[in-house]
Amino acid sequence: RCDSKKLDGGDKDPSEMRSGYAHAQKMRAAATFGFGRMYGKGRTPWHESEVTGEMVGNPSVSEMVSSYMVSLRRRKVQSGEEQTSARAITPELIGKLWDLNHLEENWSIKKYAPTQRGEKQSNSWGGPRFRRAVHLAYTLAFVCLLRVDEVLKIQSHDIEIIDEETLKLTLPFRKTNQFGHIQPFFLKKLPEELKHLCPVRAYAEWVVQTAINEGFIFRKMSSGDRHSADSTKHMVGKFTAMGFRNNLLDVSVDPSPYGTHSFRRGGCQWLSVDLRWPIRKICEWGGWSTDFSYMTIVKYLISWNNDPRQPRESFFDMNRAPIVACRLCGRTCECS
């Protein structure tokens, strides 16, 4: 389905639709799960038993399959089908979205007035309440390194107000920690210059306007920019992604390289580059393993698809402008 070769080694017809390398990875992951969980094969690599002489382990975790996946990716790249991850969003771009959303015509709550089909303009994709909702989702995904589906499933009882400047967010479920013991996120009110990244401010704005104190925080939106009264149903990811794309178009940014995973990637780079967090601290905060056996975090920190925070021609420019100052020591050099 993903390969350009047939099982007999022949080439498939060029007009035949083929899935990408990412789909092949998902197929292998499904096979690994099926053999491991459903058939009790675990994650032990497929090998010949020295005792019985029979093949044991998980067939999907074998040298042959691994070799094939490497070969498939190489051929995909050579044919121009290189896998592209979502581009990491930068704090500066979130700042542009914040500035646009806070314009009077986009932020001021207006009385409900029904409109007829065709009356809405192309730039009126979201009202003030929806813009508040998506910006809260932006900040939570960015600062807490969350997936969008994890953000949209947050309920009121998952958030505890510690004091005027501190929130405690405890997720009931995470992809990387499905059996409880999930560490909470303690979110502090960020300084004024980082207000566009501050989940505490965004949450306060959202709660003040919606008065939501039970059920899902991100409710389904209905006509007239009104949130649903049904607290048991949350906003779907497709709706949030649509808002994000339109928001990017508003600031004249091509949305095609970006996705909802851009916030998780961008937040990881922000913690590393701007806040100077060490990798171990980022892993602990984001819920990644700290044994560094898989180094998933490297894919979030480094990607050819990202916007460069510093132009390549300035790498050896000793007179270049200073970078963001560290709030603890005040240094602006990269060695800090």
Describe the structure.
It is a single chain. The protein is mainly alpha-helical and 336 residues long. It folds into two domains: 1-83, no CATH class; 91-110 and 123-286, hpI Integrase, Chain A, CATH 1.10.443. The protein contains eleven helices and seven strands. The strands form three sheets. Strands 3-4-5 form a three-stranded antiparallel beta sheet, with no helix packed on it. The model has no long low-confidence stretch (mean pLDDT 83).
Q: How many structural domains?
A: 2
Discrete helix count: 11
Percent strand equals 5-15%
CATH class of the largest domain: Mainly Alpha
Helix content: 25-40%
User: Which residues form runs of ≥5 with pLDDT under 50?
Assistant: none
Strand order of the largest sheet: 3-4-5
Kindly report the CATH topology of the largest domain. Answer: hpI Integrase, Chain A
What is the rounded distance between the termini? Answer: 49 Å
